[in-house]
């Protein structure tokens, strides 16, 4: 029985150690404890915000998830070491002036808490070499846990500012496809490449720190939703709206930008349960696609593509491709809006 208790304690210590190392140091993964805790906090906060009719409450889910993860790390590590000490409480020396009574799990928690926090009042110390080494080992894990927590916090919060800045960069383009067309024409491929780099950075940040996805901005204009919407409109203008004569390299740069957006959509689908972007059944109807394509090109004005000389089969192929791309984008934005409790928007629809 004693061996099973100690083994259980060591298993908990190892679980939290691995979880913290993976979460803080791995470039794309969360530890299992971090993933379950973060998802649980997000789901609970989201359900409460919806029930109360106050979407803004969801903005606290990100910070709350970070606090909850570190709380679970600390509590589990604390209890794990307490289980290690529990069968060997007689191997500690106790201050005779302090009445300890029965040496129970609470006593083990006290010893574990002192070692984990490196307080060390001196009223309980290891009386054997094994216990002295164990308390030193726990103090080291406690110090490492605090360091990991501080490192994670100092790393993730600057990234929220970068996400907000990237979203504001394209806010007006999501609202106005005509402005997106002018940016594509005047900025050319360099503008689209800069936007692509912003999108890649946000994707890398979200993969490196998945809890970043739970930092919902109270201002939709500074959110991941706005970043994706604005970048999608810019990519669609470059690929289907603006004439190649007006932006010679715009179409190629737009295609590259859309590939990056596809990657983000796939990443969000696999990591956060959003709809997969590669489903072909998300394509728009022919009528809906034609209406949105016409609106896209009309907002481009004199820089829009002139389709009158195109063969009917070429126009049909282009429309089918456009319907699939916009359908995927629309489905992703709908899911993202529902996930973060933002109002839905319809891409390239003149309301």
Number of strands: 2
Q: Helix and strand succession?
A: HHHEHEHHHHHH
On the 0-100 scale, what is the average pLDDT? Answer: 87
Proportion of helical residues: 55-70%
Q: How does the helix and strand content classify structurally?
A: mainly alpha
**Percent of residues in beta strands:** under 5%
Estimated radius of gyration:
27 Å
Strand order of the largest sheet: 1-2
Globally, the shape reads: elongated
DSSP summary: helix tally: 10
Largest sheet: 2 strands, antiparallel
Describe the protein:
It contains ten helices and two strands. The chain has helices at 2-25, 32-52, 61-85, 105-116, 129-175, 177-208, 224-241, 250-272, 286-299, 312-340, and strands spanning 92-94, 124-126. A two-stranded antiparallel ribbon has the order 1-2. Helix 1 runs parallel beside helix 5 (129-175) and helix 7 (224-241) packs across helix 9.
In short:
With 351 residues, this protein is mainly alpha-helical.
Write the layout of secondary structure elements.
Layout: H1 2-25, H2 32-52, H3 61-85, E1 92-94, H4 105-116, E2 124-126, H5 129-175, H6 177-208, H7 224-241, H8 250-272, H9 286-299, H10 312-340
Antiparallel strand pairs: 1-2
Keyword list:
single chain; 351 residues; mainly alpha; two-stranded antiparallel sheet; 10 helices; elongated
């Amino acid at each position: 029985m004693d061996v099973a208790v100690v083994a259980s304690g060591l298993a908990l210590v190892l679980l939290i150690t691995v979880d913290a190392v993976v979460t803080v140091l791995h470039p794309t993964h969360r530890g299992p404890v971090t993933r379950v805790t973060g998802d649980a906090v997000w789901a609970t906060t989201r359900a409460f915000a919806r029930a109360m009719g106050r979407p803004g409450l969801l903005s606290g889910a990100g910070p709350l998830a970070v606090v909850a993860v570190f709380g679970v790390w600390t509590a589990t590590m604390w209890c794990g070491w307490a289980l290690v000490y529990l069968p060997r409480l007689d191997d500690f020396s106790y201050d005779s002036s302090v009445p300890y009574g029965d040496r129970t799990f609470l006593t083990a928690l006290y010893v574990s808490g002192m070692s984990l926090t490196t307080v060390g009042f001196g009223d309980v110390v290891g009386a054997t070499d094994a216990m002295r080494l164990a308390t030193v080992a726990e103090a080291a894990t406690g110090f490492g846990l605090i360091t990991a927590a501080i490192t994670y916090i100092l790393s993730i919060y600057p990234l929220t500012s970068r996400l907000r800045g990237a979203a504001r960069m394209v806010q007006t383009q999501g609202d106005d496809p005509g402005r997106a067309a002018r940016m594509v024409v005047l900025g050319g491929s360099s503008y689209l490449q800069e936007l692509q780099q912003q999108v890649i950075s946000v994707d890398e940040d979200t993969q490196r720190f998945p809890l970043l996805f739970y930092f919902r901005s109270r201002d939709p204009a500074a959110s991941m939703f706005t970043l994706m919407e604005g970048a999608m409109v810019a990519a669609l203008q470059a690929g289907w709206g603006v004439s190649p004569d007006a932006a010679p390299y715009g179409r190629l740069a737009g295609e590259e930008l859309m590939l990056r957006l596809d990657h983000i959509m796939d990443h969000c689908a696999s990591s956060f349960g959003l709809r997969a972007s590669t489903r072909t059944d998300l394509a728009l109807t022919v009528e809906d696609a034609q209406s949105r394509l016409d609106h896209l090109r009309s907002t481009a004005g004199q820089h829009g593509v002139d389709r009158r000389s195109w063969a009917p089969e070429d126009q049909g192929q282009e429309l089918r491709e456009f319907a699939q791309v916009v359908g995927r984008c629309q489905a992703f934005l709908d899911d993202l809006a529902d996930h973060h409790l933002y109002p839905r928007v319809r891409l390239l629809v003149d309301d």
